[in-house]
Structure formats: C-alpha cells, structure tokens
Amino acid sequence: MTDAASTTAQSDSAARAQIGVTGLAVMGSNIARNLARHGHTVALHNRSIAKTDALLEKHGDDGDFVRTETIEEFVGALQRPRRVLIMVKAGDATDAVIEELAAAMEPGDIIIDGGNALYTDTIRRERSLADRGLHFVGAGISGGEEGALNGPSIMPGGPAESYKSLGPLLESIAAQVDGVPCCTHIGPDGSGHFVKMVHNGIEYADMQLIGEAYDLMRGALGMPVAEIAEVFAEWNTGDLESYLVEITAEVLRQVDAETGKPLVDVIVDEAGQKGTGRWTVKSALDLGIPTTGIAEAVFARALSSSRATRDAAVGLASGALGAAPTDKAAFINDIKAALYASKVVAYAQGFDQIAAGSAEYGWDVHPGDLATIWRGGCIIRAQFLNRIREAYQENPALPSLLVAPYFKAAVEDGIDSWRRVVSTAAAMGIPAPAFGSSLAYYDGIRAERLPAALTQGLRDFFGAHTYRRVDKPGAFHTLWGEDRSEVES
C-alpha cells in the first residue's frame, strides 16, 4: 500500500467524509475514485473488506479515502447530513443494505441508490424512508465503468431538498458538455430510475438498429467485416455521430488472436439482457405508449437466445428471395438514412413514454433537461441530442420529436431510403424487425385514418364495448343480435 493510502486507510472516528460509497465492485470503486479525484473525502465500505483494501492498495493516491469495516463505523465517518451512495445489485440486496443504513442514520440523512433499480421499488423505498425522516434518492447512472470513473450522466430523483446538498457533489463528477454538467434533479421519488430505465430501452433499440444495419451490409451486399467497420467509422463523423456508432467500428475492427477471424464471427449470436429493456416495455404497455422499436429490440434479444427453437427452424422455407441491390454505394446510403430515421423514432418513443410516466406520477420531468444531460457520459450520447434539446427549447409541449421541424425534415429526406431498406430486407429474407417496426410506427402516426375503426366495430359486436362516431359526440352501441339499430350508451 502506498504511503498516502496507508495514511487515509486508518479508521477515523472523526466525521470528515463528504460522502460514503458502499458496494465496491467495479462501478462502485470507480465512482468512489471519481469523487476522490474531484476533491471529496470518501468513506469506503464493502461487505468484503478485502475489496476495500484492494481499492486502497491500487488507487489510494486518487484522493482522500476513509477506510471503514462496519456500517456503524462507515456512517460515523460521514459529515451531516450524511450522504451514502449504494452501488450493489438491484433487488433484495439493495433493500438489505438500505435497512442496515437506515438503522444507523438520523433524520435528514440521505441514502442514494445508484443501481439500476425498478422505479416502483424506488417509489416504495422513498415513501418508507420518508416516514423515518430520511431522504432517499434513486439515481440513474449511465456510462459504464469508464463513465463512472471519468464522468457519467447522472439522473437523480427524490426530494428536491436533498438535491440542494447532493446536487453540487454529483454535478462535480458528472460528464461536462459545453461547461454544463450531465446531471440535474429529475423529479420526485422514482423519476430518476424511471428515466434511466427508458434511457436503457432507447439503448436497446439503438443497438438493435445498428445490428440490423450491419447485417444488411453483410447479408445483402456481401461486405467483409473490416469494410463494414470503416463504414461505421465514416458514419461517426456526420449526423450519426454517437458513442454506439463509434464503438461499433471498434468492435468490428477487432480480430480474434486465436483464429485470425473477425471477433464478431467467434462470438455466440445470443444477446443477453439484465432487465431494464423488459421493464421499459412493460411500463410502456401499462401507460399505453407504443414503444414498438424498443419492444422489437427486446424481442430480438429473446429470439437470439431461443437456441432450441432456432436450431429446429434451420432450413425452413424462405420462399422466392429477391435479388441483392446492384448499386452498393447507393444502398449503403439508404441504410444510413434508414438508421438515422429509425433512431429518431426510438428517441421519440422514449420521450413519449417519459412524458406519460411524468404525467401519471406527477413528476414534472422536463424533456429538454434529459436531452442536455444525455449529451455526455451516457451510453446513448449522440450528436443529435443537441437537436433534441433545441426542439424542446423551442416547444416544451412538443407532441412528438417527429413533428419538430429539424427531425420532420430529416425523416422526409430519408423516407424513400427507409422504405427501400425495409422492402429489400423483406425480399431477401434478412430479419430487420426494428427497421420495419419503426417505419410502421411512422406510417401509423402520420395516417389520417387507421383500421382501429374496424377494431372498435368488432369489439362492439362481440362484447358491446361501444364506439364513438366521427359526426356527433357520445358513445354508441349497435344491437347486433337484434335489428342492428344503433342506441346511445
């Protein structure tokens, strides 16, 4: 252990730490180091003391740390109001740590859950701890291990009063874009974790769309992986500039040392998931918001992991497949335009869900704030978040990103390309569910009339669910089993 680490590792009964971090796996350790690097004294706690000592051994020079072993010692090392950041696995483990901390803390102290918690759990925890005089903050943190250390995007919910004490500290360690920290108070109780959940849902859609773009270049155009990597690298210099497009080029450039093949060719084609995408879709269903692109991305991961079904289906008839595009450069440009338009749909659906959740729970979430704090640190950071920010600054009540002037024009410019990509994928038997569902959503919202009128007629026929008319107010029912006259309900 370094001399500095040895000095700071001593148990200190004086309350001198500005914040404590419990749960020192990679994310927790990196957040603690980030805090220390920004001049904050950080109390450290972990159930396994060996992890605490490992952090101090390797990174004790990052700043001023206070080593603790017990919860009581940990809480005692903190200045008031005490601020503790929990970085443990979501679920029962979080509840257990919260209870331990709450028993040792005093009214006015602040507990922050920095994990990917389900927002309804955060609502429950906030209410329970408020009854005990404690502040509970559910803080979504995006950026992975690198972001945690060098500047994440932070989405804290919870009592506004707690942000007065906590906000400056979190803003100091967040990513900075144009001098603006990628952190702001989102709203009450579960709002921070709700917003982070939808952020992750958008992330699912974004990655699926990128995967479909790659698959089309490979399957429809027969391009080698290395060449596709350079296409993504070029795309990252223009309107599609984003973290995910950037690292797509890096992943596709990687060659497996053992086989000499592109790494992507030796990775099993089964995508994992930790739950936030499913939570987003479930919540959207409850709120009645059609997040179709996000849902298709979740289902695509589930399909990829349905190995027994996929193995059994190999060799099923494809029908007569269409020919590959003859103009390679033109079709690459079509894919680029389709990717951009579909990404706009994913963000539009995500922001619609956030607006619905905010209305349902009374959170008063400001979408422009989210576009601001997602510009840096987080996984879905992208150049066009500046455009989203501008759109909401111009019209805070914007009904959909797709009708904002910039995005309306961008999609109009690419609509023909988008249709060619979706139709080519279908004709060649290349699955492109996110591209297809995004286009169908766009066509659905722009349609003057939908077949939902027939759906309502069918519902009224078999279940007397009634319907409304276009020419007069009220609800009506047709007496289908009698003389088929119409009555007002």
Record keyword descriptors for this entry.
single chain, 489 residues, alpha/beta, 21 helices, 12 strands, disordered N terminus
What integer is the average pLDDT? 94
Low-confidence stretches: 1-13
Question: Largest sheet, if any?
Answer: 7 strands, mixed
The coarse overall form would be globular
Number of strands: 12
Q: What's the tally of helices?
A: 21
Across the major sheet, the strand order is 3-2-1-4-5-6-7
Structural class: alpha/beta
CA distance, first residue to last residue:
79 Å
Strand content: 5-15%
**Helical content, roughly?**
55-70%
Rg is 26 Å
Explain what you see.
The protein is of the alpha/beta class and 489 residues long. The protein has helices spanning 3-8, 26-37, 49-59, 71-76, 92-104, 119-130, 144-150, 160-173, 191-219, 225-235, 243-253, 263-266, 276-287, 292-304, 307-313, 328-361, 367-373, 385-394, 405-428, 433-446, 452-463; strands at 19-22, 42-45, 65-67, 83-86, 110-113, 135-142, 153-156, 176-177, 180-181, 467-468, 475-478, 486-488. Helix 10 packs antiparallel against helix 11 (243-253). It is globular, with a radius of gyration of 26 Å. The model is unreliable at 1-13 (pLDDT under 50).
